[in-house]
Amino acid sequence: MLVFDYASNGTLHEHLHCYEEGCQFSWTRRMKIVIGIARGLKYLHTEVEPPFTISELNSSAVYLTEEFSPKLVDFESWKTILERSEKNSGTISSQGAVCVLPNSLEARHHDTKGNVHAFGVLLLEIISGRQPYCKEKGYLVDWVSNFLKAKDYLEKPEVMSHLVNPELKNFRDDDLKVICEVITLCINPDTTARPSMREICSMLESRIDTSVSVDLKSSSLAWAELALLS
Questions:
Q1: Keywords on this record (predicted)?
Q2: Which of 62, 103, 132, 209 is close enough to 12 for a disulfide, judged by CB 3.0 to 4.6 Å?
């Protein structure tokens, strides 16, 4: 049995693809979720020994709390660890940290670059509202590759904006540029050229503003009300 904090808002996948209000997720809320996921992965990759990776990192593996803070879940890995630990091929400490991992599982858990690629795809899913794969449109990564081939696309807001869900209003061009930079780095076919989650986290935290004032400024009505109150 696994015990973890209750996430009352279900999965990120449900909000992006199943609920009508998914398209109403504000840009700032999406950015907070993105940074929260990045911080979680950085912790798993750099502060856990040995490094731990999510076996299937996607929007279904991200649970949202009452405040919409993201929680990363990997049921498959823990199921495997628990099953093998019962056979004495792996052990788990009293704090739940993995001490000894079976060979194949240990090798996969060191594949942090695979998680980095999946994080890039997840970013695309969050800003575009599109599934990573669908029969009609194919793979999301193939779709975005057409935009990445455009010369100096990072300097062209009109090109980058095509990656954003048309129903999502009031996104910030500066934020989108950072997100596109991170996506480009994460999905690089050359795994050695992909950044670490520590580097990605630094990029996101230093260049994306998720303060309340930014969220208010995205709504002209809310900003006008705030100005009157002050």
A1: Kinase, Membrane, Receptor, Signal, Transferase, Transmembrane, Transmembrane helix
A2: 62
Number of domains in the chain: 1
Q: How far apart are CA 176 and CA 188, in angstroms?
A: 18
pTM confidence score: 0.80
- pLDDT tens per residue, range 174-205: 999 999 999 999 999 999 999 999 999 999 99
pLDDT digits over 62-101, tens only?
Answer: 999 999 999 998 866 555 555 555 555 444 443 333 333 4
Q: Give, for 99, the enclosing helix (H) or strand (E).
A: strand 98-100
CATH of the domain at 107: 1.10.510.10
**Residue 219 phi, psi dihedral angles, 5° rounding:** -115, 115
What is d(CA 169, CA 24) in angstroms, rounded to the nearest whole number?
9
